[in-house]
Amino acid sequence: MLTSLRCATAVLAVVAACPVALADTAAPVHTYAVVDRIAGADAGWDYASLDTAGNRLYVSRTNAIMAVDLASHKVIDALAPANGAHSAFAIDGGRTVVETDGRSGTTRFIDAASGAIEDTIATGQKPDAAIFEPVSGRVVVMSPASNTVTEIDARTRKVVAQFTLAGGLEAADADGKGHVWVNLEDAGAVAEIDAVAGKVLRTIALPGCEGPTGLALVAAGQRVISACANGVAPVTDTRSGKVVATLAIDKGPDAVLADDVRHAAFIPCGASGTLVAIDTANPAQIRVTGRVPTQVGARTGALDPRDGRIYLPAAKFEAPAPGQRRGKPVPGSFVVLVLAPQP
Q1: 131-161 residue pLDDT tens
Q2: What separation, in Å, do the N-terminal and C-terminal C-alpha atoms of the chain show?
Q3: How, if at all, do strands 30-39 and 45-51 pair?
Q4: 138, 199 in Cβ contact below 8 A?
């Protein structure tokens, strides 16, 4: 429940001075505020990631990989060029950036210091989400246009497994035990993959969920939260495979950001311009604890586990043309919103 309705309904321009406390009678208080905005070059964007080793934020842009130094907020708008980047994240202690290049159908390994492209690997049609799975040491790439999951040995940078998984592959997360969970957007389901064996273990339907995109494992891997386009977030028990709760969220979600340190998760909802906060301390009682106003268009993001700060790429949009779902971004309006926990 929002503890300050007047503050929550203030215009976005003053959100930074207007922290919103998130609480209900049975959950801890999480208070967040927009404390900064980091400007970047015009271009579309998709996933963002946080590299604690290199102290950088990476944002996948339509034409480049954007890097932000978190200490100085210095922006490198184009660390490396891209052709429809979807995922960009660091491995090897921050020395290497892995990027899925949607239009070229490749996954690229890039030197984080120089931006030099070291390896380019074919990974199916329109590779989108990708993650590093630590037990197998593999980069797992989801390519929805070819219904394939490709596994790349991160050390040798060779494809070691590729298998079919239909249903609209979307966001994924690893449990740290060799398994990967991935949403199936078109099927309204979530799948579990054994990354070590290179195969699908099971697919679980998400009743009432349309278009699951964002996903994260929470509660020490006991639950997986999927964010659905129709404003709900099913919570699946990873052991039983049963949906144990369905949370009401807002419109236009495209990510779930887990904060295991503070026992919370956050779903940025771009159509509503809100960040939905979730208490994950008790796996049996995962619940929404409130909403923070952000900005329309802020639908993906990254969370820094060290200080709890949340980074949300966003831009202002023109009114959509007749027959179009969304308008064009307003030139010069791209920013990364920075939200911080408040005392």
Answers
A1: 999 999 999 999 999 999 999 999 999 999 9
A2: 18
A3: unpaired
A4: no
Note whether 265 and 257 are within 8 A (CB).
Answer: yes
E strands present in 11-84: 20-22, 30-39, 45-51, 56-61, 64-69, 75-81
User: H or E segment at 5?
Assistant: helix 5-8
| Angle (nearest 5°) at CA 126 between 250 and 270 | 15
What burial class does residue 135 get, using C-beta atoms within 10 Å of its C-beta: 0-12 exposed, 13-18 middle, 19+ buried?
Answer: middle
Identity of the amino acid at 95:
R
User: Which pair of tokens denotes residue 292?
Assistant: 């923070």
Instruction: Decide: helix, strand or coil at residue 16.
Output: helix
List the one residue out of 68, 123, 119 whose CA is nearest residue 92: 119
In DSSP notation, 291-306 reads EEE--TT----EE-TT
295: phi then psi, degrees, rounded to nearest 5: -160, 140
The structure tokens 């049975």 sit at 26
Contact 192, 172 (CB under 8 A): no
339 residue type, one letter: L
Token duo for residue 172 = 């994924």
Alpha-carbon span 315 to 156, nearest angstrom? 38
Token pair in block for residue 314: 């966003």
Q: Across the strands, what pairs with 341?
A: 32
User: Consecutive 10-residue runs of the chain (343 residues): their mean pLDDT?
Assistant: 29 36 44 94 97 98 98 98 98 98 98 98 98 98 98 98 98 98 98 98 98 98 98 98 98 97 97 96 96 95 98 92 83 97 85
CA–CA separation, 20 and 6 (whole Å): 10
Neighbouring C-beta atoms of residue 307, cutoff 10 Å? 10
pTM of the full structure: 0.91
Rounded-to-integer distance, Cα 39 and Cα 49, Å: 17
